[in-house]
Amino acid sequence: MVHGQGGVKFQNWAKTYGSSPELYFQPTSVEEIREILDMARQRNKRVKVVGGGHSPSDIACTDDFMIQMGKMNKVLKVDKEKQQVTVEGGIFLSDLNVELSKHGLALANLGAVSEVAAAGVIGTGTHNTGIKHGILPTQVVGLSLLTASGDILECSESINADIFQAARLHLGCLGVVLTVTFQCVPQFHLHEVTFPSTLTEVLNHLDDHLKRSQYFRFLWFPHSENVTVIYQDPTNKPPSSSANWFWDYAVGYYLLEFLLWISTFVPSLVRWINRFFFWLLFSSRVENINVSYKIFNYECRFKQHVQDWAIPIEKTKEALLELKAALENNPKMVAHYPVEVRFARADEIWLSPCFQRDSCYMNIIMYRPYGKNVPRLNYWLTYEGIMKKYGGRPHWAKEALAVLPTLSCGHHLLSC
Ligand SMILES: Cc1cc2nc3c(=O)[nH]c(=O)nc-3n(C[C@H](O)[C@H](O)[C@H](O)COP(=O)(O)OP(=O)(O)OC[C@H]3O[C@@H](n4cnc5c(N)ncnc54)[C@H](O)[C@@H]3O)c2cc1C
Questions:
Q1: Ligand 1 pocket, Cβ-based, cut-off 6 angstroms
Q2: pTM, rounded to two decimals
Q3: Average pLDDT across the chain, whole number
Q4: Which of the residues 71, 86, 326, 378 has an alpha carbon 20 to 30 A from that of 187?
Q5: Quick check: is 399 in a domain?
Q6: Transmembrane region positions (predicted)?
Q7: Of 168, 186, 204, which marks where a domain is finished?
Q8: Is residue 356 domain-resident?
Q9: Helix H or strand E segment including 36
């Protein structure tokens, strides 16, 4: 008999959304999940499955039954010939990365963090960057779903092909994702080069940058022309690192958080912070080499609010310049750094923001220094207006006002 716990409080990673599920389950087998679904049917309850709980929106929240898949986290099969791996939906990518490297394999692309579950990370269409690379669900070649009726549905390009294109980005709505099969690549090292530039230079030479580096992205520092360009490319060189605790943590974390907190009383300080920290931390060239997942992943230190829409790639310049102009024309509106700009190849996944179009993702951020919410409504609305104007499609995991159905001041912590 499967046991459900009462009184559990769920909170997402950023502690921006949470819920109190009536019963919280951590099943260890398919049979146990079937029992939970039976119970839910009998009691007329909805069921939500949660992976790593990293989604910045309330997409994983429920007050009914919550299934946490952390105990269904095994690697089921490694097919060395096809370079494919089949895993249980609850495995964290941080564990999968290590397991794959034991077999000389890796995922071709990863988001910023790996403390996310295989089924969860694809469920919202997580992406990284690289115009030859699709969002993470494009690496999925098969999966199995346990539907609400208790049936198991296998799907891939050749079996239940329609359901496959829906389930690769499933939003947690199509059933419990039991297993996922990923197409892998041979293990590789990445050489990361970070160097300063300007918004004008990067936007005027976007195509060159996209061609020059396989995993090109850039960070724009709002209220300025400053940009950090990041190139990441496969290399045969051994690991080397220029990490420095003092600059990375003492300055880039503790001092920054303190100053961001001060700026909640003097918002205009944000302009100065963005310029000062660019000069302090990002104005010289830095290089790192390591195994791919250690370069793809980086530490996201601050709890934060984020929005991230995908627009047609050819609109990158216009949209970003419009956002810059909006900030210049509205002195009361402040924006934390960085605006992270990434790219992804078109795909055929029904709910993908990149469905049938090469895309630019523009991620805006407002930190929560010491857990304090910073007003962001104007910035959020201005950004969304620009994204919509250019045909934007919101990231499913993030905090688009357009897709949060019950958003109101206070209720969802949106400081007005
Ligand atoms: C610090 C940080 C960094 C991030 N970096 C990036 C980034 O670089 N790029 C990017 O695109 N996104 C990024 N994100 C967003 C993140 O990748 C997504 O929110 C992702 O979906 C989180 O995976 P998860 O396992 O935590 O999923 P959860 O948030 O737990 O769940 C996501 C969805 O999947 C469903 N689900 C989970 N498991 C199952 C299952 N077994 N069966 C059915 N449904 C299931 C849930 O119901 C929910 O709908 C970041 C988030 C944080 C907090």
A1: 13-14, 48-56, 59-60, 69, 89, 111-113, 116-117, 119-121, 123-124, 126-128, 171-172, 176-177, 300, 395, 397
A2: 0.95
A3: 94
A4: 71
A5: no
A6: none
A7: 186
A8: yes
A9: helix 30-43
